[in-house]
Specification:
Blueprint: E1 2-11, E2 18-28, E3 33-37, H1 44-51, E4 59-64, E5 67-68, E6 76-79, H2 83-86, H3 93-103, H4 108-121, H5 137-150, E7 155-159, H6 167-184, E8 188-192, H7 195-201, E9 204-208, E10 215-220, H8 231-234, H9 236-249, H10 258-268
Parallel strand pairs: 3-8, 3-9, 6-7, 7-8
Antiparallel strand pairs: 1-2, 1-4, 4-5, 9-10
Helix pairs in contact: 3-4, 3-5, 4-5, 7-9, 9-10
Bound molecules: adenosine-5'-triphosphate.
Adenosine-5'-triphosphate is lined by residues 11, 18, 20, 38, 40-46, 193, 211.
Length: 276
């Protein structure tokens, strides 16, 4: 679905140039939920902007279904962190969700139907006639997600989408995203700086180095598909995976597999076990 090859992005030129992204290559398969985790300021948003066609990469290429991305593709949607600035306050919730569909020349009746379906999917069936400012922050971010889903994008990009909501709402939105992604078989690339969130949400986690961003690991998250905010986060496998991501982020790259295996052994050993 998505192929990023040899991507470099540099802001400015000459001595004052700042390299934000360096030699990034990876692909995302259709139906996959891939998370990108990296330290603050490492270049995550720059990478997403290049993928979304909002800025041209200095070098390298981004391909979506084999077509080179040179501007914002029609079948791509982006959800940003700042929901309060991404919704139009003068439009109702339903009209906000319908808005991008106007540009796709979709008729009025189908626009209304798709908006209603998307609002149903995010648990906001009854709020279409309200205005964004009448909703809580978490509800506004659900509206942003509904708007992205209504356009049925081939690829949904999410830039720290849950960073501005409280912890409980964040858990609810994470579960909502996994449910909707599985129901609709959407392809999602989500950027976060939260290690636990990346492991909880992802089928895969791409770990980025500090600035300039380059990939230090591409981990398959082999947790069961049905995840639970308490049981999954308490499981030995989750704890081992998040430990591995944390070590990679700190640049402590142990021998492949050993860190995870050791962490897991420690956690699964019964209290009476004597270490060898
Ligand atoms: N328009 C710009 N012009 C010059 N430098 C920029 C520009 N945008 C970003 N940068 C720089 O590029 C680097 C990467 O920024 P970017 O926003 O991509 O990082 P990030 O990982 O998304 O950060 P955060 O996690 O804090 O949101 C930073 O050092 C930033 O200062």
């Amino acid at each position: 679905m998505l192929e990023v090859s040899g991507l470099n992005h540099r802001y400015g030129q000459g001595e004052r140039a700042h390299v934000a992204v360096r030699e990034l290559s990876f692909s995302v398969e259709a139906g996959e939920l891939a998370c990108i985790v990296g330290p603050s300021g490492c270049g995550k948003s720059t990478l997403l902007r290049c993928i979304a066609g909002l800025i041209p990469p200095t070098e390298g290429s981004v391909r979506l279904h084999d077509d080179e991305v040179t501007g914002v593709p029609d079948d791509l949607a982006v959800v940003f962190q700042d929901y309060s600035r991404s919704l139009f306050p003068w439009l109702t919730v339903a009209k906000n969700v319908e808005f991008p569909l106007r540009w796709k020349k979709i008729g009025k009746r189908e626009r209304a139907q798709r908006a209603q379906e998307a609002l149903d999917a995010v648990g906001l069936a009854g709020v279409g006639t309200k205005f964004p400012w009448q909703l809580s922050g978490g509800m506004q971010q659900r509206v942003s997600i509904a708007r992205a889903l209504a356009s049925r994008p081939a690829l949904l990009l999410m830039d720290e989408p849950f960073a501005s909501v409280d912890a409980q709402t964040r858990f609810d939105l994470e579960d909502l995203l996994r449910r909707v992604q599985r129901e609709q078989q959407s392809t999602i690339l989500l950027v976060t700086h939260d290690i636990d969130e990346s492991v909880y949400l992802g089928d895969r986690v791409l770990v980025l180095s500090s600035s300039p961003a380059s990939i230090v690991a591409d981990l398959t998250i082999d947790l069961p598909a049905d995840r639970d905010q308490i049981a999954t986060r308490e499981s030995a496998r989750f704890v081992a995976l998040r430990g591995e991501v944390a070590r990679l982020l700190q640049g402590k790259q142990g021998q492949p597999g050993t860190a995870t295996d050791e962490a897991e052994r420690e956690l699964t050993a019964s209290p009476g076990d004597v270490p060898h």
